[in-house]
Amino acid sequence: MRTEVSIRAGTQGAFRRYVFSTDHKTIGIQYFILSLFSVFVAMALSWIMRVHVAWNSARIPGLQHLSAAGAPGGVPTPEYYLSLLTLHGTIMIFFVLTVAPQSAFGNYFLPLQIGAEETAFPVLNMLSFWMTALALVVLLATLFVSDGPPQSGWTAYPPLSGVGIDAGTGLGRGQDLWLVAIGIFCVASLIGSINFIVTLMDMRCQGMSLMRLPLTCWAWFVTAVLTLLSFGVLLAAVILLLLDRNAGTSFFLPSGLLVSGKLEEHAGGSPLLWQHLFWFFGHPEVYIAILPGFGIVSHIVSCSSRKPILGYKVVVGCMLAIGFLSFIVWGHHMFVSGMSPFSGFLFSIPTIVISLPATITTLLWIGTLWGGKLQLTTAMMFCLGFISTFVTGGLTGVMLAHPAVDAYLHATYFVVAHLHMVMGVSAIFGIFAATYFWFPKMFGRMLNERLGLLHFWLTFIGVYCTFMPMHVLGMAGNPRRYAMLTDDFLLPLIPLHRFITIAALATGAVQFIFLFNLVWSLFRGQSASVNPWNGTSLEWVACSRASACNFQESPVVRHAAYDYGETNAGRDFVLQSDPESVQLR
Amino acid sequence: MRLSSGKPFAFLLALLALASVALFLSKQWLPVTASQHAAILDQQLHWTLLDSAVLFVSAQLLLAVLIWTSQIDGKNTRKTPPRAITASVWLATAFIALEIFTAATLGRSAWAAMYTQDVNPDTVRVQALGQQFAFYFRYPGADGKFGPIHVSKIDPSIGNYFGLDPLHDAAARDDISSATLVLPVGRPVEIMLLAQDVIHGFYIREMRIQQDMVPGMEIPVRFTPTRIGKYEIACSQLCGLGHYRMRAFLQVVPEQDFQAWLRTHAH
Questions:
Q1: Structural element, H or E, at residue B20
Q2: Is a pLDDT exceeding 60 seen at residue B113?
Q3: Mean residue pLDDT across chain A
Q4: By CA distance, what is A302's nearest residue in B?
Q5: What mean pLDDT do residues A19-45 have?
Q6: How far is CA A503 from CA A54, A191, A467, A470, A584, in A?
Q7: pLDDT for the residue A11
Q8: B62 contacts in chain A (CB < 8 Å)
Q9: Confidence class of residue A5 from pLDDT cuts 50, 70 and 90?
Q10: Which chain B residues are closer than 8 Å to A384 by Cβ?
Q11: What's the alpha-carbon Rg for chain B, to the nearest Å?
Q12: Phi-psi region of A62 (alpha: psi -120 to 50; beta: other; left: phi over 0)
């Protein structure tokens, strides 16, 4: 422990302090910056896709310089469209939705909220970050390999992803690099999750019983368990697919494949095996992205309503139930895959049931708001936006849980709308809420609230304009992942696509307000007080970031996590570390 | 200043809820139905959509009302009575029970209508083959048997999409291959889906049919066309650069036209 403190105190050089740091707060910020970079890259890719779908001969300025072959004259080819789609999905799912809510905020705040001086394995933590960064570099390197970036989507179904260059450009070296990148990411995530679990179990300060943990900690804990149990399976799948591609094995490739007139030398593999392994990871992954948002929304809604969260234990139970159920629903991605139709309902019923804990949690948030003294800060507005969009995206999820309904809507824009509403909007709103809420703690300055509210309003309207119309496109039977709409059936839908594109570009442009706010506030923002939102949890009694340790002395917790309301101490909250004498009235 | 954003936001939530409903109702978004099971599938889709719409609008309006009526600074907060927790659990359970009931009744029938239809002697049997980036179809001919597939003989340039060897295989001699799917109206159909290279998707909107075509597997889809017309068969599974333009057409014709078509294409 002493050596760690000395490292943070700066006795080691700036290199150890800011680059290869073992301090969880620095690592949290590193993850935050990595995901911030990633989200803007992936968003830019989606703009190109949206413009191309809506105006398929439009030239994207400068795109030909990124890839002369992929976008001659700035117009993306169909194969380059698929590459953009693959990278957009991969970067967003892995490097934004997995990294920001869990690795970034979890790293920074889990130890602070449990009153710990460090995480359990600081060096592994550093390793985890740098492996994630390496994975991102490997993934982005696919943009520059000679045969182009991968094109098999973020789900990389074999045989398309397994037979190599025969099935299309980008499925050669680009696909190999994609698999390597995901493999590295898996290892990094596994290491990170072990660190989170042990830290939460072993490093809680005196008095911090499990039922006094802030709900964010519960969310990060459940997420870490999901990560530990699911990423290992993806890692195995990725290695097997790499072997199929490069070592002549046939885990996922059946015999008799005739690809571009060439008979492949594979026999005995099952393409569906990949889908089972992938979605065994893939569905928990959805909750890995959203559960930290549950924690953050619970945390902020309680604070900004100035009321205890309604049904703390029920929320904890719901998160545990979601975590458990998320492992038995993966087959709902495979209703039309060729899996036995008799297993349809085996996956359908748990999928419907998993919305039970999600619905209860949502109702408890709404119940917490009731009669509250709402502080409509930007963070709180994003939480309210989270609740609104989570209801919207969640309800379409229940629809898609019905196998027969899915059989029509599967692989259409309805699914695109659903997954973006939940993962692309709700989960991101959770990240925004966390950023506005915790920025003062992380950087000692407040984010500008006026810009923040502007950012919220425009984003909230923008995402509904972008994703709501996608539902009806799906109902009309518009398949997803089409580079262009060229047939008579889909041509009438182009005006709606253009509306969506304009909304998406506008919403994207609004994100630069956020970026500007971040940079401006970092240097010019109003100085933050120790506890700017009058919160109860330990991150608000921790030392400022500049000091050598997390806590002057190890805190002792004597109160529950969300004691908001009139107290005998003349304020409307009880810090978890307050003396016994401070009580709610 | 801060609280001033409450009421406009509540108003916006209500507006969004209503605008979304209006968008769904603005047009008959679903394509026409042209198969027997399509009606029950649409019925289930409409029921679940209605369930979702009611909950969607209620939740957004509830959120809007709470924000609209939220207190001004200075007053005390009101405790939410603990029975609200129980109420939340029951409300959620009721919603889930309704969904499971829908799944167990309408959903089960719709799914069964798609996957467990019997094959009887009257059933028209067809094979469909997906390859980058086209669909091909074949009929077994008068003998009712599909000739075996020899992958090495597949050659679309001479029309041998299925790798038939009529010289050696008697069953293959009367097989009819086609790039268009022609089916008679009113008779049950079983299409056996095959794929040659990568996974493709067999999606006929008006028939309410979507099924992946997986290499190494033979996956049947069964339906009964009920409406004469020309329908697009679209690829619904990412299959490579030509995915967006991979399509074929289904022509549903009267029985006598179907027989005539078979005769003109017979060898």
A1: helix B6-25
A2: yes
A3: 94
A4: B77
A5: 95
A6: 12, 39, 9, 12, 47
A7: 54
A8: 366
A9: very low
A10: 9, 63, 67
A11: 26
A12: left
- Multiple choice CATH, B124-265, 3.40.50.300, 3.40.630.30, 3.30.70.260, 2.60.40.420: 2.60.40.420
How far, in Å, CA of B124 to CA of B140, rounded? 10
**Candidate from B55, B111, B240 with C-beta closest to A344:** B111
**Which token pair is A128?**
């985890």
* DSSP state letters, A462-521: HHHHHHHHHHHHHHTT-BSS-S---STTTGGGHHHHHHHHHHHHHHHHHHHHHHHHHHHH
Residue with tokens 């989270």: A386
In this prediction, residues B108-117 reach a mean pLDDT of 83
Whether omega before B133 lies within 30 degrees of 0, making that bond cis, reads yes
Q: Is the dihedral of CA A470, A475, A480, A482 positive or negative?
A: negative
**Residue pLDDT, tens place only, B172-183:** 989 999 999 999
Task: Write down the pTM of the prediction.
Answer: 0.95
**CA B130 from centre of chain:** 17
- Interface contact flag, B241 A151, Cβ < 8 Å: yes
Mean pLDDT for A147-160 is 94
Distance CA B174, CA A164 (A): 37
User: In this predicted model, what pLDDT tens digit does every residue of A354-389 receive, in sequence order?
Assistant: 999 999 999 999 999 988 888 999 999 999 999 999
Q: Taking the alpha carbons of A122, A124, A125, A130 in that order, is the dihedral positive or negative?
A: positive
In chain B, the residue whose alpha carbon lies closest to the alpha carbon of A480 is B236
Q: Which residue of B6, B48, B217 is in closest CB contact with A376? A: B6
| pLDDT reading at B4 higher than 80 | no
Indicate the residue of A263, A405, A457 with minimum beta-carbon distance to B48.
A405
Reported as a single tens digit per residue, the pLDDT across A179-195 is 999 999 999 999 999 99
CA angle at residue A258 from A253 to A261, to 5 degrees? 145
**DSSP-assigned letters across all residues of B187-229:** S-EEEEEEESSS-EEEEEGGGTEEEEE-TT--EEEEE-B-S-E
Q: CA-CA distance, A48 to A143, in Å (whole number)?
A: 15
Asked if the Cβ–Cβ distance from B212 to A254 is below 8 Å, we say: no
Six token digits for residue A416: 């695109």
